[in-house]
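Run log // design_07
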């Protein structure tokens, strides 16, 4: 496994110039949250409007006799609207956090790759933990190293 990691990591070092050129543009695109920020602002507004309408409906129901079936239907619809906005806000926050994590992982990986000018000849636990996200073992004897920047390198498993 250690030898396979060295082979996979060294393949990444061999491609380092191409990686650096590609990642400057890709990193900005992968981690851009502008559209999510805009949608979050809209969902916050929607949540506030729905909340205000719920309060208004409750106040009206408390002040004047209303048909309770109509009131309950209206209240349920407003509550569903509020919950939908709240749910979407949670999804947006999760996606923004996911993009921030991706950015941190890619940036960390690139920083390590920039420091490493020569091929790695000895296994380094720290390099492993910092650069490898996971390793897939295939039935055909290959190992797929998935690096924290999302890139995958296949290496035959040596016996």
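design_07 sequence
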């Amino acid at each position: 496994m250690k030898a396979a990691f060295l082979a996979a990591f060294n393949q990444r070092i061999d491609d380092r110039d191409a990686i650096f050129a590609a990642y400057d543009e890709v990193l900005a695109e992968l981690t851009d949250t502008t559209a999510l920020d805009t949608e979050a602002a809209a969902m916050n507004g929607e949540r506030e409007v729905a909340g205000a309408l719920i309060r208004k409906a409750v106040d009206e129901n408390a002040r004047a006799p209303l048909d309770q079936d109509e009131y309950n239907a209206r209240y349920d619809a407003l509550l569903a609207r509020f919950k939908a906005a709240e749910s979407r806000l949670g999804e947006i926050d999760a996606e923004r956090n996911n993009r921030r994590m991706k950015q941190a992982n890619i940036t960390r990986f690139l920083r390590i790759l920039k420091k490493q000018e020569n091929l790695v000849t000895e296994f380094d636990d720290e390099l492993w933990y910092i650069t490898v996200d996971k390793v897939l073992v295939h039935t055909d004897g290959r190992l797929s190293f998935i690096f924290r920047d999302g890139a995958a390198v296949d290496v035959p498993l040596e016996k």
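Helices lie at 2-14, 16-31, 34-63, 68-115, 125-131.
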